[in-house]
Design goal:
alpha/beta; 7-stranded mixed sheet; 6-stranded mixed sheet; 10 helices; 367 residues; 15 strands; globular; 23% strand
């Protein structure tokens, strides 16, 4: 996978001149998947794609909807690590990663977090607003949150969701007690995890009349989305105001991440809070009815593309997110890459997974 290596060796994570290399790396990945995964080959053939010569642009790559990964265990090669989706719908995606993919993901993460000033050598205390690792928990969001605590040396780690005999339970009181101790400490505090539990913490602090001033350099890193709490989702302005009111953390020290287990690319918001597309990925916005690619500025289903992995065919996946792709000129942060705006989600039953539907795209594939 020489072209994959070359792509992930690009130093500037937002280099807008690498579109040809990206397409060539995708074709290389397609050839591997086509020859190593019968199910992927059947899907490609069903869509009229029988070789890389049929791929003129990234939008021509065979697309697999993320919900199909929850119904079928796709395998395309040996793997080192397996991660699962959060399973909020009751079903899980099982995504396997080869050693090369893990190495590329590490290099990518270091470049992107360094670019956004998240990578640091200064020790800090972590408040993880997510699951405490447990042998029964194999979700990618848990592994990612824990790995994020290595972006700066960890003096300590405290988790909001504690594993109990009855499942995971939030421990807000334990977090608040810890924050009171950390307030006068010499180490900055870094929050990492779900925005929902982080916002609920702000609300509890406000209701109790508690206003803390955490040490200089403290940050809030958000990832994993609002999941089952989407109805309680706060607008960003309200979130930022409460963060400063209750913890003394300013907006410029709040960073949000976006990603998916089926698309392990790190999207990190810029100072204007936009998710610019890194060089290691590409995004196509598709019409929900026809799946035809849409122009920038139009709302459609988000198709995420990356040639990072070999062990599972996640080259091009269709999410149930509705989004808009904007040109770089629409953001004045200085980044030359386009950026993605997530609008919301669509119920799975309303998603047409290809022109003829999911049953046709998986014709001949055993579920």
């Amino acid at each position: 996978m020489k072209l994959r290596n070359k792509l992930f060796a690009v130093k500037n994570p937002y280099d807008s001149t690498q579109s040809e290399l990206f397409l060539d790396a995708c074709k290389e990945n397609f050839e591997y998947l086509y020859s190593h995964c019968d199910d992927y080959k059947k899907i490609a053939n069903g869509l009229g794609i029988k070789g890389k010569e049929d791929i003129k642009s990234v939008s021509d790559l065979p697309v697999i909807p993320t919900m199909l990964f929850k119904q079928h265990d796709f395998r395309s090669g040996p793997y080192l690590v397996m991660a699962t989706s959060s399973g909020t719908s009751g079903k899980f995606s099982k995504i396997r990663f080869d050693f090369g993919a893990l190495l590329k993901a590490l290099k990518m993460s270091l470049k992107i977090t360094r670019h956004h000033d998240v990578l640091s050598t200064k020790p800090c205390r972590y408040i993880v607003m997510g699951y405490k690792p447990h042998r029964s928990n194999k979700t990618a969001v848990t592994k990612t949150a824990y790995l994020t605590t290595f972006l700066a040396p960890a003096v300590s780690r405290k988790f909001i969701l504690q594993h109990t005999p009855d499942g995971y339970k939030p421990d807000f009181d334990g977090i608040i007690d810890a924050l009171k101790k950390y307030e006068n400490g010499r180490f900055p505090v870094r929050f990492m995890g779900f925005p929902s539990y982080t916002f609920f913490l702000f609300q509890i602090l406000e209701e109790r009349g508690i206003s803390l001033k955490l040490p200089e350099g403290s940050k809030i890193l958000l990832g994993g989305g609002w999941k089952q709490f989407y109805r309680e989702a706060a607008d960003k302005e309200t979130f930022y105001k409460l963060a400063y009111k209750t913890l003394g953390i300013k907006e410029e020290n709040i960073t949000e991440f976006f990603g998916a287990v089926e698309h392990p690319i790190l999207y990190t918001d810029c100072p204007k809070h936009h998710f610019h597309v890194p060089v290691y990925s590409n995004i196509v916005i598709r019409d929900p009815d026809t799946l035809e690619p849409l122009d920038n500025g139009k709302v459609g289903l988000v198709n995420l593309i990356t040639p990072i992995a070999k062990a599972t065919p996640i080259l091009s996946v269709m999410t149930d997110d509705l989004g808009v792709l904007h040109g770089s000129s629409e953001c004045d942060c200085g980044c030359q890459a386009p950026y993605l705006e997530i609008i919301g989600r669509v119920a799975p039953e309303n998603i047409k997974t290809c022109a003829a539907g999911a049953s046709d795209i998986l014709k001949g594939v055993s579920l």
